[in-house]
Amino acid sequence: MTSTLKGITLKGSAELVAEFFSFGINSILYQRGIYPPETFTRVTHYDMSLQLTTDPKLKNYLTNVVSQLKEWLFECTVQKLVLVITCLETNEVLERWQFDIECDKSAKESSAPREKSIKTIQDEIRSVIRQITATVTFLPLLETPCAFDLLVYTDKDLVVPDKWEESGPQIIDQSEEVRLRSFTTSIHKVNSMVAYKRTDSV
Amino acid sequence: MDLEDDTTVLTTLKSFNSFISRPEHPQRLSDHSAGSGNLQSQYKRSMELLEAAEQVYSKNRYLQLDQEKKQMEMSHKRARFELEKAASDSARDLEHEIDRNQELLGRIKKLEERETEAAKNLSEQVEANRALRKNLEGLNKKLEERDSRLNTANQTVSSLKDEIRELKQKIQNKDSTISTQTLENQELQEQLDLQRRKYQEVSQVCQNLQAAQSSCSEHIIKIKELERRLALQEQDIAIVKTVKSEVARVPDLEKELKRLRDDNAFLRESRENCSLLKEEVEGLRRKLERMEKTKEELVNMELDKERLAEKLQAWENLGQSTGLNIRKPEDLSREVIQIQQREIALKEQNYTLNSRVRSVERSQTELRAELSQQRSKTLEEQKKRESQDALVRRLQKRVLLLTKERDGMRAILESYDSELAPTEYSPQLSKRLREAEDVLQKTQNHNAEMEAQLTKAQEETGTLRLQLQTVELELDSLKKQQASAADSSSLATKEEVSILRQKIEDLEAERQRLEEQNNVLEMRLERHNLQGDYDPVKTRVLHLKMNPTAVAKQQRQQEVEALREEVTHLRELVRSLQDGGSLVHSQDDSSMHSSSLGLSLPPSKEILDLRKQMESSELRNQRLKEVFQRKIQEFRTVCYVLTGYQIDITTENQYRLTSVYAEHMDDSLLFKKGSNGSMQLMETEFSKTLGEMVALHLHHQKSIPAFLSAVTLDLFSRQTTI
Predict the structure, then answer these.
(1) If DSSP codes are grouped into helix, strand and coil, which group holds residue B656?
(2) What are residue B444's phi and psi, to 5 degrees?
(3) Record's family (chain A) (predicted)?
(4) In which domain, by residue range, is A16 found?
(5) Cα–Cα dist B363/B228, whole Å
(6) What are the pLDDT digits (tens) for A143-199?
(7) B118: closest CA among B133, B126, B130?
(8) When comparing pLDDT for B240 and B580, which is higher?
């Protein structure tokens, strides 16, 4: 957060959004039980207690993705970040956490900071993360062993970096969608939503 | 009364004592003071005094005695009274005693009677006693006889008991011999079992032998085969020799091979070329076909062209005929556009005309309204005029009347003038005349005014009429105009308008439909967006190659592969084992032997060893079992002989005790071992009969051995006493 208290720059915004993704992904993984709860530690951030993973492999993966994402956010070439939860037994996509990112590309030209305090942005982020935590109440239970993947929707003209490759959208067959809250840094606007496979019982 | 008397006595005694004690002092005083002169008097006096005192004393004594006497009398009376009382009591007692005496006498009599009865009884009893004694003596005699008999019987009994004892001993001996025989029998049976087992072993060995024989025969077959192979090999050797000779030719052949290979390569290339050429040919054929098609198309096109040229000619002709310079479709379109523009202009004109017509109509209606107003006005004016005409006529009449009156008046005046002197009445008359003239003039003025008004009104009506006429003319002209306008364009425009309206409606409907469709599509797009769909033209989806899903999947696959390998491995193992264990794997363990034992025909060395081991161990086990059994049997017999109880285990924790001296075979005692090791007696038919002993030894003394020995003793005594 390099920006001053008064406003927010493109770089600050990118960092703020990347940080949100880091915490958001961690809390989804914790809430949905993709990784065992004992591999998480409690951390206080955004004036609330959050769970961060201690699994070294996962940590490494997340830092890789988030740092790359930060770069793309700075370039305003990201459209979406999607967390896909796949069943390992059937290779079926069970849940899709989608974060639509709307970039204000005019911020790239003008470097003037926007008038929005970090505190209000963090308040918005906190409410989004709270909602993610609350979704556990209606999402169906993941009964089989699952793994997750992060998809990034970028502009077509982007050069694919090493270690990255193109992938399918991993769309859920017969899904239910729920829109969650959104927040904006006045440069990046993040709309969150979750889609999950409709179960027969519903 | 007595007490009062006593008190008086006491008082007198007191006074007397006081009197006695007092005079001593004066005597002494007199002794001292008076001397012996007065002695006589004194003596007399004292004598008197003494006499008085004696008198008093006697009196007192008398009184006292009297008193005593009274007392005595009183006591005497009392005594007598008491005596009388006692006498009466004794008399009463006496009477009582007499009564009792009588009663007793009655009793004595009764007793005497009884005594006599008893004496009688006694005598009877004595007689009976005597009879009984006689009986007794008889009985004693009998008893003695019996005793003697009993003695003899006892003797016989003792002799019999001795016999029984001997017999029992014999029986015991027999029992022991039986038990030993049963033991021997068991031993023999065991030996038999052993023999049987040995026989089984032998038979097994026999089987093995047979198996070995069969294997031997197989081996022989194998050997034969091998011999055959050997022969074949010899043949082969011969062949090899020929081959060697051929081998010498190999370099030549290799060269040839190289050449052929080259040729082959060349041919391959040529084949590839050929295929390429074929492809080309194919392509060319396709091209040709396409060309033919294009040719046909060309012909068609030419035909079309001719037709179009004809059409063009026709167009041109049309252009010439119409006078418009239409040479090309562009011209036509231009022309059409012009026409359309013209049409538009005409439409606009039409619209303007329509609007004008409408405005004119509006003005017409206004004018009509005005006209009606004007008409009403003219009617009013006419009415006014008529009324004024009437007024004028009336005024004229009046004027006539007045002129007549005036003429009359003048005639009267002239007559007066003529009759009278003008001087007398002339001023008066002239005055009147003047007045009358004034009035006349006024009326005339009024009349003139009225006439002027009338003319004015008439003029007004005239102007109004003129106006009306002009308006009517205008109206007519307008009507004409309208009619002409309607005639000229109304039909066309109306049709056009209706067509256009319909078109507009259609377009509106289509627009709404499209809007709805648009909404639906937008919603669908939104939904797709929510589901994660994307536009592949603008967007690409990226993810890290080494993402957790891929890693997990890979791990899973690896696991699956490992498991599959293991499965195939195990399957092979199983198959090899089923084939007879000829391929003994290093992983083979003894547990698998037993499963493969039944199927294997030629058992491996290891298996044989193990089998031998197993047999020896089994043999050892059996021997140990035998020894144990023997020992156990020995122990049991010893226990049986020593304690007199045979102990059997019926079920878990239950022991059945059968005594040596049991009267029946079924008589036994059941003990159950409790969880804490204590023994409890269970109820059996036999134990029910031993209630006393159970109560004494088990419940009271709480000793099972005591109970058992008591039972033994009881049974023993029962057996011996019979």
Answers:
(1) strand
(2) -65, -45
(3) Belongs to the MAD2 family.
(4) 10-197
(5) 138
(6) 888 889 898 988 888 888 888 888 888 888 888 888 888 888 888 899 999 998 887
(7) B126
(8) B240
Using one digit for the tens of pLDDT, what is the confidence trace for B620-630? Answer: 999 999 999 99
Residue B12 tokens read as: 């007198």
Chain B: give the shortest CA distance to residue A186, in Å: 22
Q: A63 and chain B: CB distance < 8 Å anywhere? A: no
SS3 state of residue A115 = coil
Q: Provide the whole-model pTM.
A: 0.35
Residue B2 has pLDDT above 50, yes or no: no
Looking at the DSSP bridge assignments, the partners of residue A192 are: A99
Cβ-nearest to A172 among B531, B534, B546: B531
The residue with tokens 């309206």 is: B501
**% of chain B residues with pLDDT over 90:** 39
Provide the terminal-to-terminal Cα distance of chain A, rounded to the nearest Å.
44
Q: How many domains does chain A have?
A: 1
CA-based nearest residue to A151, from A69, A56, A58, A28 = A69
* H-state helical runs in B487-643: 491-531, 548-578, 590-597, 605-643
Output the domain CATH number for residue A187: 3.30.900.10
- Tokens encoding B389: 């005409």
What are the strands of the beta sheet with A175-184, ordered from one edge? A164-166, B539-544, A146-155, A78-87, A93-103, A188-197, A175-184
How far is it, in rounded angstroms, from Cα A93 to Cα B96? 138
Cα distance between residue B260 and residue B254, in whole Å: 9
Asked if residue B547 lies in contact with residue A61, where contact means CB atoms within 8 angstroms, the answer is yes
Distances (CA, A) of A59 to A28, A32, A37, A52: 14, 17, 15, 9
Q: Where are the domains of chain B?
A: 499-531, 644-720
Q: What is the pLDDT of residues B362-410, one digit of tens each?
A: 999 999 899 999 899 999 989 998 998 899 888 888 888 888 888 888 8
State how far the Cα of B457 lies from the Cα of B463, in Å rounded to an integer.
10
Rounded Cα distance, B334 and B319, in Å: 13
Number of residues written out for chain A: 202
Compute the nearest-CA separation of B527 from chain A (Å). 9
Q: How far is A77 from chain B (nearest CA, A)?
A: 10
From the list A96, A147, A175, the residue facing B549 with the nearest CB is A147
> How far apart are alpha carbons B240 and B246 in whole angstroms?
9
- Please give the C-alpha separations between residue B500 and each of B497, B506, B510, in angstroms, as whole numbers: 5, 10, 15
Tell me, yes or no, whether A120 lies in a domain: yes
Residue A171 lies in a domain: yes
Q: How many residues does chain B have?
A: 722
Would you say residue A27 lies in a domain?
A: yes
Residue A68 lies in a domain: yes
Full DSSP string of B508-535: HHHHHHHHHHHHHHHHHHHHHHHHT---
Q: Confirm or reject contact between A59 and chain B (CB < 8 A).
A: no
CB distance from A191 to chain B under 8 Å?
no
| CA–CA separation, B165 and B171 (whole Å) | 9
Question: What per-residue string of b and e applies to B276-287 under the rule 16 or more CB within 10 Å gives b?
Answer: eeeeeeeeeeee
Distance CA A32, CA A95 (A): 10
Give the three-class secondary structure for B324. coil
Residue A105 dihedral angles phi and psi, to the nearest 5°: -70, -15
Residues of chain B with Cβ-Cβ distance to A166 below 8 Å are 540-542
**Angle at CA B76, nearest 5°, toward B75 and B81?**
95
Whether chain B has a CB inside 8 Å of the CB on A84: the answer is yes
User: Chain B within 8 Å of A160 (Cβ-Cβ)?
Assistant: yes
Fold for the domain defined by B644-720: Copper Amine Oxidase; Chain A, domain 1 (3.30.457)
| Alpha-carbon span A165 to B541, nearest angstrom | 8
